[in-house]
Amino acid sequence: MDDFILRALFAGILVAILCGALGVFVVWRRMAYFGDTVSHASLLGVSLGITLGITTHLSVLAVAIGIALLMIVLQAKQRVSNDTLLGILAHSALSLSLVIISLTKGVQINLEAWLFGDILASSNQDIMTLCITTVIILIALRFIWKPLLSLTVNENLARVEGVNVTLVSSIFTILIAVTIAIGIKVIGALLISSLLIIPAAAARYLVCSPIRMVFVSMVIGIFAVCAGMTSSFFFDTPTGPAIILSASFIFSLLFIYNSFKESNS
Amino acid sequence: MSNILTSLENISLSIAGKKILDNVSLTIKSGQIVTIIGPNGAGKTSLLNVFLGLQKAQEGTIFRSPHLCIGYIPQQVAIDPHLPLTVADFILLAKDSSHERLSQVTADVVASHLLEKPIQALSGGEFQRVLLARALIRQPQLLVLDEPAQGVDVNGQAQLYQLLEKLVKQHQFGVLMVSHDLHLVMAKSDQVLCLNQHICCSGSPEDINQHPEYRKLFSTIESESISVYTHNHDHQHNLDGDICPLIQQGKACGTGGQHHG
């Protein structure tokens, strides 16, 4: 097999591991739209990076974290309802990004690669960055696991028990933002949040403990990456969408299996 | 006094210009059950939230004895069906919990047989007992309960309050609770506060019981055993505009003159 395919596979597996670990919380905390907002808004990072001549890695990361923190601050103020706020931020940032690109002379941008991902273009340096980030995020998640789960179950109860709710949820938000920022290049701004949600939702049908749901959703994500890349290799389909379709397929099978099981019991 | 766990003094709270709590004070000692009753929208839950630090009051002071550990049972705990969580997992989520105490507290609240069940599969009464176990695992000196008998059938309610009384005798913690279940709660409480933004009246259950409005309410509930809770207790205003109860019984008028500020 070619080197670039192995690199792509490796990059996909790392992103699937990250998304599996954090995605369960996105499902439990009903943050699907939050993930969409951060990923769409991150495209602003792409155009800013190109316009200002900074590495897009860094500018995307900065914009993702910035948007995520901005949302935390604005949500605390509670002047506008959450989903309205997310809608405003996501599409304003996206539009701003497209306007900036159009005003920047002499710049060619492969928008499709950013929207749907370009997993086959993963370089050795990309893999290194992904590896290090994955390790850091998983360690951070291990540290905040219990308080984060506790405040996911009931925020007031956690607060009264002495959990620093603001700190823990801010750390979690940053972890999500970083995951999205590094996942965009691999799987695309339009698709990354579905890699957070679909494997986690599918894993729910197979497990009865939170920690198992993390591992099973990682496995489902990895499986989807492998299946998607295989189909892309043999049928020349776009890789990002093929991965997401594989994940949806697994979800559908488990959903049907579970419906049968419930109707029989 | 050394056994005072906590006291709230002259708490006032407004949200968006609307007065929620007006000059409310209360004290809880260890081994004492203090119950707050009052109509919907009286500010009962707000008072608990202010006390717990979940909401900030504009005026008033809160005193807590040093290192006071609070066990809390919130009013509504809805757990997402996507979250696979057993009863044991849920109780152990409590901060500073330990496996050693798990079997002890679940035995205390008669929930040992539930440990491996998914938390979403519990009945109302079972769930409240599990919440109680999670509060107890931290060995609190004070238990704060927001309508603990919510969603529990009548038999279950009586059992729950009996259990609570037994635990208070056993562990000597203080209890602050909000309740709608007058007939069950009154007898178990050491002090009953009637809240309607301000404290309308307070005292021992006997004092409150002599209040004609409560007498009426009490006999209705006891004769029918199940009754819709109607709170007729109301107040009048004297010429100065102070708020006073209709009949001067128990501790009337927020212990007199406080409304002059």
Structural key phrases:
heterodimer; A: 265 residues; 11 helices; B: 261 residues; Rossmann fold; seven-stranded mixed β-sheet; three-stranded antiparallel β-sheet; 8 helices; 12 strands; 26% strand
Give an overview of the whole structure.
In chain A, helix 1 runs parallel beside helix 6, helix 2 (32-52) crosses helix 3 and helix 9 (192-203) packs parallel to helix 11. Chain A has helices at 3-28, 32-52, 56-77, 82-103, 111-116, 124-153, 155-160, 165-187, 192-203, 210-235, 239-264. By secondary structure, chain A is an all-alpha fold. The radius of gyration of chain A is 19 Å and the shape is globular. In chain A, 83% of the residues lie in helices and 0% in strands. The longest helix of chain A has 30 residues, at 124-153. In chain A, 46% of the residues are buried. Chain B is α/β, with parallel strands linked by helices and 261 residues long. Chain B has a domain at 4-77 and 140-224: 3-Layer(aba) Sandwich (Rossmann fold), CATH 3.40.50. In chain B, 31% of the residues lie in helices and 26% in strands. Chain B contains eight helices and twelve strands. In chain B, the strands form three sheets. In chain B, strands 5-6-7-3-8-9-12 form a seven-stranded mixed beta sheet, with helices on both faces. In chain B, strand 8 (191-196) and strand 9 form a beta hairpin. The two termini of chain B are 26 Å apart. The relative contact order of chain B is 0.16. Residues 220-230 and 247-261 of chain B have low confidence and may be disordered. The A-B interface holds A 27-28, 30, 146-147, 149-150, 152-154, 156-163, 200-201, 204, 207-210, 212-213 and B 52-54, 70, 72, 74, 77, 79-80, 82-86, 89-90, 93-96, 118, 134, 138, 144.
